């Protein structure tokens, strides 16, 4: 099947060696600009996705997908709540907890902390403390042993090590003839964890649930129940469904609400990076405009001859649109290939650059992440490809319109 002559001429103009080598140079620069812009967009968005996934994983290693808390701050019949919650097909596991404020003291050091009483066997099903234990054992939280597991920053601030005894002071006091005396209990440090989030490493202490109930005088009551879901992204929907299923007066929150500002900030940063880096592609599109404008000037005699042979202004416009679109498509293909390859191998490329130049881009002491994470999402690649192609196509409109307005008589006057 014969191709339209507009397409054939446009392809020939792209392949042919030009008399003006400067136009060929500008065409190459335009292709390179599109390729670099597209590759940069793919790599940066993949790294942003990787950071988002990494941070989400670290937060959810401490924070449950859904948390059910009593409206008064306590749940009296938590086994029944667990049983009702586990009837939902999306709920994978459930664990009770006791949570309250406390003050830890060791020698002359005093630090406030969030004290969480847990059942280690059940807590393992909804959180991932065990893989983040730097020393000690999570299983050492045995009832009536009064052991405590501290975050690494909290332990460093207090100056404690394994086996040291710290004093935990509860804010609820005991009324005596001498006045209100705070309740306190000595706990032995049996473990130190580090999840990589300063908020929790610096302010969270874990104890056995029975010990927390005794210290805070909760008897057999708990603060709430933590749930883990099959799909963490269904948490808001599952939370609404559980609110209708449970027959207790409780407050239900999910991880998207408890850290809404944080994840919203990460998403805004990703969107802004997309907009900023899209300007690189826009600059490359302007180069396509300049390339086609010069090509139209160089081919005025050819345009005039085509017009005298019966080519319509629309056909002339299509010829140069094909030429400009081909420049954009080649650059786009190179950029997608290079960007995808780099995004998939960034864990190899970045360490090689660090070794070559003797630098470290991410210090673990500052960022808690010593390598660039990357997660390539094909919907991002599709979106980048579509936007870049549209920009390249739009860039061809003005030069092509100018070509269609060339007057054959004026163009051939001095030929």
Structure description:
There is one protein chain. The protein is an alpha+beta fold and 415 residues long. It has two domains: 5-57 and 262-412, no CATH class; 64-258, no CATH class. It has 17 helices and ten strands. It has helices spanning 5-15, 21-60, 78-86, 120-126, 152-158, 198-201, 209-215, 235-245, 255-258, 260-298, 300-308, 313-344, 346-357, 364-367, 378-395, 397-404, 408-412, and strands spanning 66-70, 91-106, 109-118, 133-136, 147-151, 165-176, 179-193, 204-208, 224-229, 250-254. It has a six-stranded mixed barrel, surrounded by four helices. A hairpin with a 2-residue loop joins strand 6 and strand 7. The chain is elongated. The model has no long low-confidence stretch (mean pLDDT 82).
Stretches where pLDDT falls below 50 for ≥5 residues?
none
Rg of Cα set: 33 Å
Give the count of helical stretches: 17
Q: Which secondary-structure class do the elements indicate?
A: alpha+beta
Count structural domains.
2
Number of strands: 10
Tell me the series of helices and strands, N- to C-terminal.
HHEHEEHEEHEEHEHEHEHHHHHHHHH
Strand content: 15-25%
Main beta sheet: 6 strands, mixed, barrel
Average predicted confidence as pLDDT: 82
Terminal-residue CA separation: 36 Å
Shape: elongated
Strands across the major sheet, in which order?
2-3-8-5-7-6
Question: What fraction, in percent, of the residue positions are helical?
Answer: 40-55%
């Amino acid at each position: 099947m014969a191709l339209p002559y507009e397409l054939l001429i446009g392809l020939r103009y792209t392949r042919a060696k030009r008399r003006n080598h400067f136009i060929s140079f500008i065409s190459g620069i335009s292709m390179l600009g599109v390729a670099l812009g597209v590759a940069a967009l793919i790599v940066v968005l993949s790294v942003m996705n990787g950071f988002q996934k990494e941070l989400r994983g670290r937060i959810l290693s401490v924070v449950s997908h859904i948390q059910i808390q009593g409206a008064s701050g306590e749940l009296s019949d938590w086994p029944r709540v667990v049983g009702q919650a586990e009837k939902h097909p999306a709920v994978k596991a459930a664990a009770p907890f006791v949570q309250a404020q406390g003050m830890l003291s060791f020698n002359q050091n005093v630090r406030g902390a969030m004290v969480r009483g847990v059942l280690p066997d059940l807590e393992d099903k909804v959180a991932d403390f065990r893989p983040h234990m730097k020393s000690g054992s999570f299983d050492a939280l045995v009832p009536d042993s009064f052991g405590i597991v501290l975050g690494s920053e909290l332990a460093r601030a207090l100056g404690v090590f394994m086996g040291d005894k710290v004093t935990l002071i509860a804010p609820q006091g005991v009324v005596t003839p001498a006045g209100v005396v705070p309740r306190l209990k000595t706990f032995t440090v049996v473990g130190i964890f580090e999840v990589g989030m300063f908020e929790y490493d610096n302010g969270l202490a874990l104890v056995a649930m029975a010990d927390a109930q005794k210290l805070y005088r909760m008897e057999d009551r708990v603060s709430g129940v933590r749930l883990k879901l099959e799909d963490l992204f269904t948490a808001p929907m599952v939370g609404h469904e559980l609110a209708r299923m449970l027959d207790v007066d409780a407050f239900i929150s999910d991880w998207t609400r408890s850290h809404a500002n944080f994840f919203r900030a990460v998403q805004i940063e990703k969107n802004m990076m997309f907009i900023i880096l899209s300007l690189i592609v826009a600059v490359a599109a302007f180069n396509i405009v300049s390339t086609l404008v010069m090509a139209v000037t160089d081919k005025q005699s050819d345009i005039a001859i085509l017009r005298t042979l019966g080519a319509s202004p629309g056909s002339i416009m299509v010829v140069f649109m094909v030429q400009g679109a081909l420049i954009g498509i080649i650059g786009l293909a190179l950029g997608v290939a290079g960007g995808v390859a780099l995004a998939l191998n960034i864990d190899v490329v970045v360490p090689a650059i660090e070794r070559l130049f003797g630098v470290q881009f991410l210090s673990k002491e500052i960022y808690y992440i010593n390598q660039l994470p990357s997660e390539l999402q094909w919907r991002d690649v599709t979106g980048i490809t579509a936007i870049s192609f549209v920009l390249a196509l739009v860039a061809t409109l003005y030069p092509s319109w100018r070509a269609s307005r060339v007057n054959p008589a004026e163009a051939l006057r001095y030929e």
